[in-house]
Amino acid sequence: MANLGEISVSAALNLLSAFAFLVAFAILRLQPINDRVYFPKWNRRGIRNSPRRSGVCVTRFVNLDWRTYIKFLNWMPAAFRMPELELIDHAGLDSVVYIRIYLLGLKVIGPLAVLAFLVLVPVNWTGETLEGVKNLAYNDIDKLSISNVPDGSKRFWVHIVMSYVFALWTFYVLYVEYKEVAAMRLRYLASENRRPDQFTVLVRNVPPDPDETVSEHIEHFFRVNHPDSYLTHQVVYNANKLAKLVQKKKSLQNWYTYYFNKYERTSKRPITRTGFGGVVGTKVDAIDYYSSEIQKLSEAEALEREKVLSDPKAIVRAAFVSFKSRWAAAVCAQTQLSHNPTIWLTEWAPEPRDVYWRNLAIPYFDLTIRRLLMAIALFFLIFFFMIPIAFVQSLANIEGIEKVFPFLTPLIETKSVRSFIQGFLPGIVLKIFLILLPTILMMMSKVEGFSSCSSLDRRSAGKYHLFLLINVFLGSIITGTAFQQLKTFLHQPPTEIPKTVGESIPMKATFFITYIMVDGWAGIAAEILRLVPLVIFHLKNMFLVKTEQDREEAMDPGCLNFATYEPKIQLYFLLGLVYSAVTPVLLPFVIIFFAFSYVVFRHQVINVYAQRYESGGSFWPDVHRRLLIGLLISQLLLMGLLSTKSVEKSTIALLPLPILTIWFHVYCKGRFQSAFVRFSLQDAMTKDTLERATEPNLNLRAYLKDAYVHPVFKGRIHFESPLLVPDEENNTLVLTRRSS
Amino acid sequence: MANLGEISVSAALNLLSAFAFLVAFAILRLQPINDRVYFPKWNRRGIRNSPRRSGVCVTRFVNLDWRTYIKFLNWMPAAFRMPELELIDHAGLDSVVYIRIYLLGLKVIGPLAVLAFLVLVPVNWTGETLEGVKNLAYNDIDKLSISNVPDGSKRFWVHIVMSYVFALWTFYVLYVEYKEVAAMRLRYLASENRRPDQFTVLVRNVPPDPDETVSEHIEHFFRVNHPDSYLTHQVVYNANKLAKLVQKKKSLQNWYTYYFNKYERTSKRPITRTGFGGVVGTKVDAIDYYSSEIQKLSEAEALEREKVLSDPKAIVRAAFVSFKSRWAAAVCAQTQLSHNPTIWLTEWAPEPRDVYWRNLAIPYFDLTIRRLLMAIALFFLIFFFMIPIAFVQSLANIEGIEKVFPFLTPLIETKSVRSFIQGFLPGIVLKIFLILLPTILMMMSKVEGFSSCSSLDRRSAGKYHLFLLINVFLGSIITGTAFQQLKTFLHQPPTEIPKTVGESIPMKATFFITYIMVDGWAGIAAEILRLVPLVIFHLKNMFLVKTEQDREEAMDPGCLNFATYEPKIQLYFLLGLVYSAVTPVLLPFVIIFFAFSYVVFRHQVINVYAQRYESGGSFWPDVHRRLLIGLLISQLLLMGLLSTKSVEKSTIALLPLPILTIWFHVYCKGRFQSAFVRFSLQDAMTKDTLERATEPNLNLRAYLKDAYVHPVFKGRIHFESPLLVPDEENNTLVLTRRSS
């Protein structure tokens, strides 16, 4: 176990690296050439236009004003300046609610830390158990933790009382926050402008009809069952193949532009090969080759486009049905149409950007099978992914390395290297594994058949949370190979599990402190530097960009990746809650993480991210639930820990806590959740009435006409989803024509 | 443990007692004087009118036709004669679906028994383990059970394969049955006549408004949010006190009638005392006393009635809101009105008879607290109720009795007494405890705040099922005091529990066979005899009945008590499923129970019961779910049992079974459940359209006017709920006037 000195080295290292990141960021962001990387949001709006052209040539790329460098942290106060209401306008409710999670972290863990340091740390410090035991290796952190209180001591009552105080405080903050977020969402929904999804319902599993086409069938059905309010509908085309063609053409166009630019620079016709990756196959003139390939693909695309639009089989059994009023749409989304609940399924339509087109046509039975299979797959993923992690981690301790590579012993034994290995390595090993994971989980969620990107994100977040909980949290506490652990748990009594885990909790405090620094602090610092987008942007800028619009497209502003970020926050919440009563020393590290993240993400939300969709903060019930799961776990583990300290009564005294937590969850769910899943008729009616008064002559049919057309059929529209990357049709034509 | 001989004695005893019940029933039912006890349903319809008046006086009371006695079982074929559709008309869908549960029992367990006897019994019989072990006490039943197969034998694969076959067969039957019941319900809803609840929604938690009365507030709110379809509403009065007065008056009237009849017979003014129960206090003339008491109460009642109707505070924050069409009511019941989900709660209105008036006014927060408290109370009830049961059971074995009452030893040791004690006593001890229980559970459900009698019944059934599962099933398998068991389970690994329970399953076969006979067979036989209603009817008939209408009221036809009966059926299902692969000898006993019950309940439904409400079979999802819980338990226990037989691979081979069961549950829930909780817009629209075509001039407002008036305010209406027993107002007046 690392001692306080090692922790300090590690903390210093991490702080230093974070500081380096920040300095790098401060310098890079001031260069006009990086404007599109660090301020893409403003660029896209045309507010912060590309580099000032007035100055000399150099200043277009490098900032020579030395005074700006002095205030290299002045982005921080700037991040706070925008008030919340303006921020909602600027970045959408999703982003605002998301950064509130970090603020919530401060609100929950902050007072917990203050209380813990005022009450628990003195109680622990004066426990003096560890000093009494001679042979035990302990460090200063342990002296501040619950381990320092002697077995059977009456001091544990302080911990019990404090854990009640902690729980009640957490309830209070969570309740207020849930209430506030729900109110924000309702205000947002009430104030937002007319949007197609307010009038539209996604209808799936339209039953086949021998006499009518899908479109006719839908129209007849709704004319009968919603006679007064049915307006129009938009069928869904199976355009997956077309989307693939479009994407392929886009990639070819990039190559074409690359070679064309090269040609313009060097005035020499570039050569490429026709085989894989341009490295095998026969040599050809690159520009001719790509322009002819693009030509071919354009023709295939046009053919496919024609085919999809004319072939009745290309219409899937789903549609977006629009109504004359929000009230009618709200009614249709919440009621059941047919007595067979597996056909005519209705749900609130996601906003057009949010639709995940590929999953709209899955029959009900397939869905249940897919979900079963994915649940089993998730189980195996979670429990067998542990094997490599545990294996690498077991290598990554000093003794392990010395055993496997005995020749490295002298090097490792030097003090600084030792600290480095102990401080960094276990965290980094985990980190590498975790980078791959979200993509896999997202793929699994897609297989499950959800029909909107936001629900895919939420679903993946749930899986990832489970993974982090079992593999990172539990897996780090109880060492040993993965499946073995599962086996141990199965063969242990249910009351033993919290004991086993709880007992080793205090001993793992230093590991988690390191983890918070490596994964949390450094991760956030890296987030603000945006190294990968920076490099990619400059590469693209160098090779592909011809027009101002190309340059705009070259920049991927990124977005808040809820599926990856939120479960991680939950891990820090969990650590904070678990250690609040056990080793309060860990709390400041968590608080720094939350505070730092809050500033960074507020900055990013203001200046960088472009959200792919807007769900109106509909993920909050998940955040709330997972936070309560964390609280529940912390309570069970505390019970387990205390029951190993020969204070049996304490377990009983703590018993009401988890029950209270579960009840609080049920209560909050009933009280607030519906604001996130349903749209009340009263609100819909209010909005309808208002609109009817202000715009009596609105032509809603024309407004909704093309709202839910598959993006590949759309004219000039920005579609930022990375899932289906369509291009701008007209653009393509211009380029192709130019090249021929 | 009882051996085969003892079982035979017990079976003979039970068969004999069942036979005696049947003979008694056959004789009693033929007496015209008992007509109202055994055929109340026909009486109430006026089809089978009171005793034939044409014959001599004696034949009005006793049947002297000897020929009818010969065919004393001829009610059995008669019970089958009515086709199902007619039965639905005659007795309602609830009853028909309920008796289908017994039929389902035959469909599930019957083929299981055939397969088990063809395949498993030979495999077990030739296992010959028990004969090899010298010192083990075993009996013939054990030789047919899985205990007879040697440890580690390959024969267990037969059991594994068969348990798959059993599970698949059960899935198939359950799926078909769920589908059929859902279709029956939909057909029933589609075909039934106009009923007030089709147009009505129960609105609860109406928020307070400073400027308007509750009634105005409701009207305004619905005129705004359902402008086209709102028709009318009926506020709910807090008439609990009034209902109590009415009930008290009813009891006084019974006493009055009793004394008046006595006076008429004896021509002597009867005397009573004013104190408790008429045994203490000063002597008074009974007729004068009761008539004056009734007078007083009538005045108080009139005053209270006036007060309730005029006092705005007597109106609770709930109402029955009616719409112009079924479509609009279906919309309102399924959608959320306010964005605050704790106010303006809407749900499908129960039919007027089904409303549980007292619970309509509970605020949302109170409800969550009440449910939390009741959940805790249920936990304690289930786990501490075991102490007395286990205590009495431990007394009720031979050795226990001999220890406590040594002087009884010679008596007990006689063979027949021994068989009697072992066969009867443990079952009866349980039985007495269980009789008290449903009332307690129903009270708990009422505290939980459900607003319809049908949901109260369903809810109580759920509690009772849990109780039977833990206390009767598990409690009988693992002996030892109650809380001790809970403790053992908490301190055992989760994989050990199925092992512990599974291991002792085969040994308990004989106990459960006895239980099935005592509780099942005899219980059903007693059900058809209706001894308690018979006695009460004749007592009332003797002392209270003056007019033909009084006589009609004197008869309580009873009803299918879902909350008590259904969980018991589930226990027999569970026994059948658990023992199907372990001790198939038990199955015929279960089958006899199901077959016998089916006949008896079909007879009772046709001739006796008057249902208190009609919910359209809405309890089926519960039945289905609990059956699958039983199947799941049987699979887990088989896994536990096999893993103690040194065949580890078997546990893994059985692992997919519970997963499949859970998936099947999820699938069926999604596929069918909504038919039981929601009413599809398509069906509502169809019915509306049809009605509009056939009755264009229907005055719906007049039709709905008094539908949802609290029963104490109603004119002449039969209200059979035992919860609030109001009287017929006019009647009362007649009586009172007559007495004065």
TrEMBL record, chains A, B:
It is found in: Membrane. It is a multi-pass membrane protein. The chain crosses the membrane at residues 12-30, 101-121, 156-175, 372-396, 420-443, 464-483, 571-601, 650-668. GO terms for cellular component: plasma membrane. Residues 370-642 form the CSC1/OSCA1-like 7TM region domain. GO terms for molecular function: calcium-activated cation channel activity. Coiled coil: none annotated. It comes from the Eukaryota. Residues 198-359 form the CSC1/OSCA1-like cytosolic domain. InterPro entries: Csc1-like (IPR045122), CSC1/OSCA1-like_7TM (IPR003864), CSC1/OSCA1-like_cyt (IPR027815), CSC1/OSCA1-like_N (IPR032880). Keywords: Calcium, Ion channel, Ion transport, Membrane, Transmembrane, Transmembrane helix, Transport. Residues 8-176 form the CSC1/OSCA1-like N-terminal transmembrane domain. PANTHER family: OS05G0393800 PROTEIN, PROBABLE MEMBRANE PROTEIN DUF221-RELATED. Belongs to the CSC1 (TC 1.A.17) family. This is CSC1-like protein At4g02900. It comes from Gossypium tomentosum (Hawaiian cotton).
